[in-house]
Design a protein that fits this description.
This protein is an alpha/beta fold and 504 residues long. The chain contains 17 helices and 20 strands. It folds into 2 domains: 240 residues, P-loop containing nucleotide triphosphate hydrolases (Rossmann fold), CATH 3.40.50.300; 238 residues, 3-Layer(aba) Sandwich (Rossmann fold), CATH 3.40.50.300. Helix 3 crosses helix 4 and helix 3 runs parallel beside helix 5. The structure holds adenosine-5'-triphosphate and magnesium ion. The site of magnesium ion (MG) has 5 residues, from helix 1.
Length: 504
């Protein structure tokens, strides 16, 4: 970064003061100040719906703030911000859907905006190609410039989006939950890229609900709660539990919840299940009222196993039994009919109908059950169910009739859970149930999982976060290379021992 005047480093990259935003009477943001220094990694932290994404959208010109705001980029005051003004001031965003072109090559994606002429100089495609290559190299990423984007994993597409920001000289990059759909090793490499950006003087504003990650990468953390600024804190010396307190205004203790349920009747039994290239010879049992945690690293085959148990793929060999009866699942419809519910890990394709009402999304799978014989849905029944789940999962919503798209990411996640829990299943398969969900709500979701287990539901909980299964499962299975490698009783091992077994 060029510091052309003495003391320039003291000028914030962005300085926004008195930021407020009201949506239909709700204060999404209430007089918030936010400042990021050049070359700083600054995390925005807070529970679902506290206003993080809204703040990002205001600074990048997507939303207009309420009157009274003061805004400056690199010391220059601006009266209003549009996406173009933000871009011209060196502000870039890596949106969660990345806004890339799947059919185009890596090079074309990186150069796209520059080619469109957002920059005042004339550039040739050849020189852009060379610069793209140079940028990828400084990021330490080896990505084929000619590869079609849709052939790359999400993690590499993110790098392409970052490179695109850099080629148009971004000085500050917003990343809103970039790691939500990444594995641990992909996350580690993204954090490496963030460090390289900071070392080059580029500021990064980073949002994540994984507090370990936040404290690892951040220089400073701005904490929001209910749309208000709690404070700005140095990451150094901050602990996860202190940060949690600041975010929630409450304290949480972690205790192992495990009980021995192996004496209860077997509900879901898997025996010698294999699917070529995905998992091999997997045997496991989930008992009535039991929460079995399934953890492991990238490529362990956990999610693939989950897909097969939900009838989305067919195993080559082996058996799946429900209450002693062999199941031959040909589709997920079969699985639902058998009383198997499945919450997928992929948040962006959760199967929520975005423009439809929150209430409609929750009752979608149970429509036939709450319909009257005439085929009409009883409005009282529907309202009752919806009310119940909104309260049960503390979903922060305006009206049940509002579109799902108006909810914050984490609250959408809760609607998905509600939707499945409302089917009253016998077996619940949860793949990474808390991805993108804040720490307070995680506790809420685990409390619900516990209550469901106590009511007799058999639960298979897949997660790559070892502490999550350690504290919340009755038994933990470790999967690696497509096979079950070990079984652990959380009451008999420490978290450190389990982590050592999984991370090797
Ligand atoms: N377009 C919109 N219309 C109406 N309300 C909205 C809109 N966008 C956000 N909100 C509301 O503003 C509040 C803040 O939402 P925001 O998306 O900023 O939360 P967040 O901190 O990013 O949460 P998460 O961690 O769940 O992503 C929420 O109550 C949300 O419902
Ligand atoms: Mg958000």
């Amino acid at each position: 970064m060029a510091l052309d005047t003495p003391g320039a480093a003291l000028t914030p990259a962005i300085s926004f003061r008195h930021v407020s935003k009201v949506f239909g009477g709700v204060h999404a943001l209430d007089d918030v100040d936010f400042e990021v220094m050049p070359g700083e990694v600054h995390c925005l932290a807070g529970e679902n719906g506290c206003g993080k994404s809204t703040l990002i959208k205001i600074i990048t010109g997507v939303y207009t703030p309420e009157l009274g705001v003061e805004m400056a980029f690199f010391g220059r005051r601006v009266a209003s911000v549009t996406p173009n003004i933000a871009r011209q001031n060196g502000i870039a965003v890596i949106w969660q859907d990345l806004a890339l072109f799947p059919e185009m090559s890596v090079a074309e994606n990186i150069a796209f905006e520059t080619l469109l002429g957002n920059l005042p100089r004339l550039v040739s495609y050849r020189s852009l190609r060379a610069r793209s290559a140079a940028i990828l190299e400084t990021l330490g990423e080896d990505i084929d410039l000619d590869a079609r984007l849709n052939t790359l994993p999400i993690a590499q597409r993110q790098i392409v989006a970052i490179a695109r920001a850099l080629i148009s000289d971004a000085k500050l990059i917003f990343m809103d939950e970039p790691t939500a759909s990444l594995t641990q090793s992909e996350t580690d490499s993204l954090l490496g890229v963030v460090r390289k950006l900071a070392a080059r003087g580029v500021s990064v504003v980073f949002v994540s609900h994984r507090l370990a990650e936040v404290l690892d990468i951040a220089d400073r953390v701005t904490v929001l709660r209910d749309g208000k600024l709690v404070g700005v804190f140095e990451a150094e010396g901050m602990t996860q539990s202190r940060l949690t307190e600041l975010m929630t205004g409450k304290t949480f203790g972690a205790e192992v919840a495990a009980r021995d349920m192996t004496g209860a009747p077997a509900v879901l039994e898997v025996e010698g299940l294999s699917r070529h290239g995905e998992f091999e010879d997997v045997s496991l049992t989930v008992h009535k009222g039991e929460v079995v945690g399934l953890t492991g690293l990238i490529g362990a085959g956990r999610s693939e196993l989950g897909h097969a148990l939900f009838g989305m793929t067919r195993p080559d060999t082996g058996a799946i039994r429900l209450l002693g009866r062999a199941l031959h699942l040909r589709s997920n419809r079969d699985a639902v009919a058998e009383g198997i519910a499945y919450v997928s890990e992929d948040r962006l394709s959760l199967g929520l109908v975005q423009p439809q009402a929150i209430a409609d999304n929750i009752v979608l799978p149970i429509l036939s059950r709450i319909s009257r014989r005439t085929g009409l849905i009883s409005p009282t029944e529907k309202a009752g169910r919806v009310e119940h789940w909104l309260r049960e999962l503390s979903i922060k919503a305006g009206q049940p009739g509002d579109p799902v798209s108006t909810l914050s990411g984490g609250n959408q996640q809760r609607v998905v859970l509600a939707k499945w829990l409302a089917t009253n299943p016998r077996v619940l398969i949860l793949d990474s149930p808390t991805v993108g969900v804040d720490v307070g709500a995680r506790a809420g979701i685990f409390r619900i999982i516990r209550v469901l287990a106590e009511k007799g539901l058999a639960i298979l909980m897949i997660s790559d976060e070892v502490p999550e299964v350690y504290f919340n499962a009755d038994r933990v299975l470790h999967m690696a290379g497509g096979r079950i490698r070990g079984e652990y009783d959380p009451r008999k091992v420490t978290l450190k021992e389990l982590e050592a077994a999984v991370y090797g």
